[in-house]
Amino acid sequence: MPHLGRTTDRRAAKLTLVHEEPRTAPLRIGIVSASMGAGHDGAAAELSRRLTADGHTVDRWDLLDLLPARAGRAAGSLYHRLLEHAPWVYQRIYTGTEHAGGAGPAARALLRTAQERVLRALPADTAAVVSTYPGASHVLGRLRLAGKLTIPAVTYLTDFSVHPLWVARGIDLHLAVHEVPAAQARALGAAGVQVCGPVTDPRFRPPRAGERAAARDRFGLLPGVRYALLVAGSWGVGPVRRVAAEIRACGVAVPVVVCGRNQALARRLAADGIEHVHGWTDDMPNLMWACDVMVQNAGGLTSLEAFASGLPVVSYRCIPGHGAANAAALDEAGVARWIRDAAGLPAALDDLMDGGPGLRQRIAGLSLFPADPALGPTAAIVGARLPAGHSAPAAVKTAADARGRPGARGRHRPAVRLAATFAAATAVWGGAVGTAVATGHEAPVLLRALEHRIDPDARKTAHPAVVPVTESLR
User: What span, in angstroms and rounded, lies between the C-alpha atoms of 199 and 307?
Assistant: First the structure.
């Protein structure tokens, strides 16, 4: 459904300098994401909120719903099970697709089944379409290369590390949160790379006077005690129990664990004697204000929210694939410390909670967010319109033809074709982008088959202003 918003106060526009460009007229923007965890959808939601606040109309779609025969939903479920029960296979898939330079023929075949559906979904007056998910970028890029989509296609890179699956030929503009992922994207051949900063809900900001104490009281946390917030994404995956036990044993901080939607994990932690355990919560801003440091294992949206909140971040015992890759990129950027072994955990937590390194890291994290909205991602998206003299009628006509052409919808539905492409295609999706793979702990034969398919060697072996907020960070 479209998201409607307000227009900017026209009186404010009169105050702009005469040499500045006039404000852009309201546009219609499409955003395609995927509900693989919460990060891709979270970025899409915040981009949508900002665009509608500026008076634009936004339409959002989930790519998983645009794949035929519920293949997308099955892929999401199976990817979740893979991370939970067979992370070693995920690492092999990640490495294999990285060496291969991206998606293979089977994955491309499956993604082609969504192309006409995407065209049919786009309203006639859409001015640009944005992807926050690599599979969607491949769909949009192929449509652009084929001349079927004649409006700009933009990829918003949600991760700090850029796997080859993120870069699709045909995409006009790639938006990165920092120069580290921007450089990685350029090295992979991405077009039109720009650094625009992260997008997070505006509730995530450094606490004002009194808000930290109020947040602690809200969650039953004591004054004078140091707390480490442990997060593991919306699915609560990874060695969370082990990390919680290590934080408690080191004596530097008391663990506060957020399990997402993993209720079984929450019960096990409570049985382990971890005092502060939370499931899914919509009050993460207050929980971040209440804690002194955050320990994470995936490097996704929650890390960006911590940066916006002025909370120092540690990457520790990261999940395979994109978790470790993001940890390395965050460490390179100087916004989160990557702890590679248990011996380094106590000193790192102590430094970041009370020492100068913690303050420097908080300032570095806050500096990711541009103070000038004109440098942010929504301005880049709106500015990605086609040059004068170009318009969208060709794309609209193609979509209309697809609606009226007999068999256009059903042509991609035969179960035999989907069965042939689904397993390998979803396996390729399991790379740095938090996507899907067809596997499960009760299917060892399939796991071995995927391992052999992806890894041939397996056959041989079985910006807000920084200065004013520093006082609130001490």
Answer: 11
> pTM of the full predicted structure?
0.76
Q: Are 79 and 426 within 8 A, CB to CB?
A: yes
Average pLDDT, the chain: 77
CA distance to 171, 284, 290, 300, 357, per residue, from 313 (Å) = 32, 15, 14, 12, 11
pLDDT for the residue numbered 304: 96
Q: Is the Cβ–Cβ distance between 39 and 301 less than 8 Å?
A: yes
What sections of 355-414 are H helices per DSSP? 356-366, 377-382, 393-404
In angstroms, the CA 176 to CA 152 distance is 17
Band (pLDDT 50/70/90 cuts) for residue 417 is very low
Q: Which residues pair with 337 in a beta bridge?
A: 314
Nearest to 173 by CA among 158, 147, 151, 194: 194
DSSP 8-state code for residue 3: B
Region 178-191: what's the mean pLDDT?
96
CA–CA gap between residue 369 and residue 200 (Å, rounded): 9
Rounded-to-integer distance, Cα 200 and Cα 178, Å: 14
Instruction: List beta partners, residue 28.
Output: 57, 126
Res 245 pLDDT > 60: yes
Burial 19-28 (b: 16+ CB within 10 A, else e): eeeeeeebbb
